[in-house]
Amino acid sequence: MSFNVVISSNKKVSGTNADAVYNFNFEYFEKCPYEVSFTYQSSLDTKALTNNIQQIELPDLPQLNYRADTKIGTATSGVIGMCYAEIVDTKERYVARWGDNPPIYSNGLPSSSTFRVRLVEEADGTTTIDAPDDYVLILSFKKLNKDKVY
C-alpha cells in the first residue's frame, strides 16, 4: 500500500512557513516501515530570498537519518532532502522534483495527529530559513515489508 500526503503551507494550524504544524491523522495507515520520497515547490517570490540550500525537515517522522557533526557521536537528523533555488522571470522559488533526493526510510509514522515541517538552512540544519510566501510539499509513503530489517 502506498499513499501521498499533500501539504499546503496555507493549511498550517500554527507556526510560520519556516516551522509549521499541520493536522493529519496517520492512524488510518498501518504502522510499519515506509520508504518516503517527496516533491516540493514554493511560490514565486518577488523579494530576494537569502537562503543557502534549503532543507526540509520532518522532526516527528521516525526515520533512519543521521548528521555528521563537529563532536564525536551520532546525531539524528529529521532532514528528508534538499530543495534548489530556481529563477523564473526574475523571481525566485525553491523546488525539489521526484528523484532529486534519494528516498528515506521511516520506521513508522508520526504518532500524533499533528506533525511539524521545518525549512532549515544547510549550514547546520537547525537554523530556520527566510521562508517563501507559500509552498506545497507532497510526501509519498510506500509500505515496506515489515519482516525485513532496514
Provide a descriptive summary of the structure in words.
It is a single chain. This protein has a single domain (2-143), classed as Jelly Rolls, CATH 2.60.120. The model has no long low-confidence stretch (mean pLDDT 83). With 150 residues, the protein is mostly beta strands. 29% of the residues are buried. The protein is built from no helices and twelve strands. Strands 1, 2, 3, 4, 5, 8, 9, 10, 11 and 12 form a ten-stranded antiparallel β-sheet that branches. The chain has a two-stranded antiparallel sheet with strand order 6-7. A hairpin with a 2-residue loop joins strand 8 (79-88) and strand 9. 0% of the residues lie in helices and 45% in strands. It has strands at residues 2-8, 14-16, 19-23, 34-42, 54-57, 66-67, 75-76, 79-88, 91-96, 104-106, 114-121, 135-143.
Task: Give a nutshell description of this structure.
It contains no helices and 12 strands.
Let me know the average pLDDT: 83
The CATH topology is given as Jelly Rolls
Q: Radius of gyration in whole Å, from Cα? A: 16 Å
The total strand number stands at: 12
Oligomer classification: single chain
Compute the number of helices: 0
Q: Structural class, judged by helices and strands?
A: mainly beta
How many structural domains? 1
SSE topology string:
EEEEEEEEEEEE
| Global outline | globular
- Percentage of β-strand residues: over 45%
Please estimate the helix content.
under 10%
Question: How widely separated are the two ends?
Answer: 18 Å
Largest sheet report? 10 strands, antiparallel
CATH architecture type: Sandwich
Q: Unreliable segments (pLDDT under 50, ≥5 consecutive)? A: none
Reading off the top of the CATH hierarchy, the class is best stated as Mainly Beta
